[in-house]
Design goal:
The complex is a heterodimer. In chain A, 66% of the residues lie in helices and 17% in strands. Chain A is of the alpha+beta class. In chain A, a hairpin with a 2-residue loop joins strand 2 and strand 3. The two termini of chain A are 23 Å apart. Chain B has helices at 3-15, 21-40, 45-51, 55-73, 77-90, 94-138, 144-188, 196-234, 236-244, 320-323; strands at residues 252-259, 266-271, 274-281, 286-293, 296-303, 306-313, 328-337, 344-349, 354-356, 363-367, 372-374, 387-392, 397-399, 402-404, 406-407, 412-416, 423-428, 433-435. Chain B has a nine-stranded mixed sheet with strand order 1-4-7-3-9-11-18-13-14, with no helix packed on it. In chain B, strands 5-6-2-8-10-17-12-16-15 form a nine-stranded mixed sheet, with no helix packed on it. The chains are: A alpha+beta, B alpha/beta. The A-B interface holds A 3-5, 7-8, 10-11, 24-27, 29, 33, 39-42, 44-45, 47-49, 52-55, 64, 66-69, 76, 80 and B 26-27, 29-31, 33-34, 36-38, 40-41, 51-53, 57-58, 61-62, 65, 69, 188-191, 194-195, 197-198, 201.
């Protein structure tokens, strides 16, 4: 996949995963890298940015003797995710159109 | 914890130097936690480290992310330089590096230019204001209108300079912001520095800066307008406008004085910038008629049979030494009776035009920037035209419509020889000499 497109989709993926439930950094990274080929270290800046934009917030809980930081989506984050979804729906129509055309040809 | 992981975290910490402590701790605890969680889930350190970028690059990305935020909230060269420093680490492809260098170079040079365009008008504004005040202080207190007008004019001009500076400064900030956005884009290759909602959030401090600028701009506009109104009300700009457009001044007092031929045999006239006209009159007397403008003063007396006229400023006009380089279209007319032979006739004006309409009288004519016009059609009683010598240092000499005279080390010289005993000498430093 094109690197530019991939990085544009990263925010949407993070928000989507968090909408399903709170999670922590490593788990989030594994889920994303399982989905698309991005560098594992590219996620931290994304999380920091989304947090500073108010789309997600963090809290810490104890886990096997140490603190683990969890990420939770905010209301604004859900709103942003909805925007992404409607954009992607449009994109999907285009993809269907283009690949469908290929099938017919 | 594994040594390699430890060294990864140490390198990361070292490279994050310069960030706020909170920011550093945040990043370090994220990666510490990341490693702990990964090892707990059974990943091997080698595998983990191979999946991650080198710590130097990670640090650069984090630093750049922080810098872009700084640049966008307070766009300045300092924050921009910071961003650029980390962008260099993050960007490695030769073509991208080249493009980045070009972008940075363009941004810096434009920023410096805009900076100069901001600083120079501010300096000019200060200088104009100081000059106008010092000029106003030289005006006698009785001319309160001109004092106010001079200061008002100074305020108006410096206000305009301040507005110019504001405009350039307003361009400066978006330039840095735009360029920072481009640098960031190159680093991310595609993803935007901040999406719409993010920008709205970040608009907070930036918007207040813009609001302050707009306030300053409005203040400058009001000050400039006030200065303009004050100076217009004083009538000073109108007066200056009329002088520089060679219009006859509105407020003129005519002074006329006659002298008998026996009373004087020498005449010496000096005007600062009123025009002088020499002609042959019909009366038997020496007549001096002077149109006195309200910013000029004069003295006219007979000193040991020499008629002496001197014009000077009464201090009412600011920057008079500059203004008086331009002619004032009020006239001083010297009418001499036919056949009168002055022992010495000297006419001099600094910035005014001198017309010599009669070839009957030997005369010395001098100007600094004023024009000298010799038109002998009128009143030439005697038949033979007078001998004329003309020279100018920086001006030009025209005979008829054509350039005349020979260039010398001194300037341009021209001679019109004649049998006539009457010699008229014309001399100007910067003015033109026109012979019809």
């Amino acid at each position: 996949m094109d690197a530019q497109m991939k990085k544009g989709l990263l925010d949407a993926c993070v928000l989507h995963i968090l909408a399903e439930g709170d999670t922590y950094g490593y788990r989030l990274t594994r889920e994303i890298t399982g989905l698309m080929a991005v560098s594992e270290s590219s996620l931290y800046p994304v999380l920091r940015r989304l947090e500073s934009q108010g789309f997600l917030e963090t809290y810490s809980t104890e886990h096997s003797g140490r603190l683990r930081r969890y990420y939770r989506i905010t209301k604004a984050g859900i709103g942003r995710l909805d925007e992404y979804k409607s954009e992607l729906t449009e994109l999907k129509r285009i993809i269907d159109f283009v690949t469908g055309g290929d099938d017919n040809g | 914890m594994d040594d390699r992981i430890k060294s990864f975290l140490d390198t990361l910490k070292m490279n994050l130097d310069g960030l706020a402590e909170e920011e550093i701790n945040e990043a370090l605890s994220y990666y510490e936690e990341y490693f702990s969680d990964a090892l707990d889930e059974g990943a091997s350190p080698e595998e983990l480290l191979s999946r991650l970028d080198p710590p130097e690059k990670i640090a650069a990305m984090i630093e750049a992310e922080t810098s872009i935020k700084l640049v966008q909230t307070s766009p300045g060269l300092k924050n921009y330089s910071r961003l650029v420093k980390f962008a260099h680490i993050g960007i490695t492809r030769p073509l991208s590096v080249l493009m980045l260098s070009i972008l940075i170079f363009t941004t810096y040079s434009t920023a410096v230019l805009l900076f100069l365009c901001t600083v120079i008008p501010v300096a000019a504004a200060c200088m104009v204001l100081a000059a106008s005040i010092s000029e106003a202080l030289k005006i006698p207190a009785m001319y309160a209108g001109e004092i106010a007008g001079t200061v008002g004019l100074g305020i108006f001009v410096s206000g305009i300079f301040i507005l110019t500076a504001c405009v350039f400064y307003m361009l400066y900030r978006p330039l840095i912001r735009l360029s920072a956005g481009l640098v960031y884009k190159m680093m991310k290759r595609g993803s935007k520095p901040a999406d719409k909602t993010g920008e709205e959030r970040q608009a907070g401090p930036g918007a207040s800066g813009r609001k302050r600028m707009r306030k300053l701009f409005r203040a400058g506009l009001i000050i400039a307008a006030a200065g303009l109104i004050i100076s217009l009300a004083s009538g000073l700009p109108a007066k200056l406008f009329m002088i520089f457009n060679s219009m006859k001044p509105a407020d003129i007092t005519v002074i006329r004085k006659e002298f008998g031929i026996g009373e004087a045999d020498r005449i010496s006239i000096y005007t600062v910038h009123s025009n002088i006209r020499l002609r042959e009159g019909r009366s038997e007397k020496i007549v001096i008629e002077y149109e006195k403008s309200d910013w000029l003063d004069y003295s006219l007396e007979n000193r040991n049979s020499e008629i002496v006229f001197e014009e000077r400023s009464n201090g009412r006009l600011p920057l008079f030494s500059l203004v008086s380089l331009h002619e004032n279209c009020a006239e001083l007319t010297v009418s001499l009776p036919a056949g009168f032979d002055p022992g010495r006739l000297s006419l001099e004006s600094r910035g005014g035009t001198i017309w010599v309409e009669s070839g009957s009288f030997p005369a010395d004519i001098k100007t600094h920037t004023g024009t000298i016009r010799l038109t002998l059609r009128e009143g030439a009683s005697g038949g033979i035209p007078p001998a004329v010598t003309a020279k100018t240092t920086k001006g030009a000499i025209y005979a008829g419509d054509k350039a005349a005279g020979t260039k010398t080390g001194y300037g341009t010289e021209y001679e019109l020889p004649s049998e006539s005993p009457v010699i008229i000498r014309l001399e100007s430093e910067r003015g033109n000499i026109l012979l019809d």
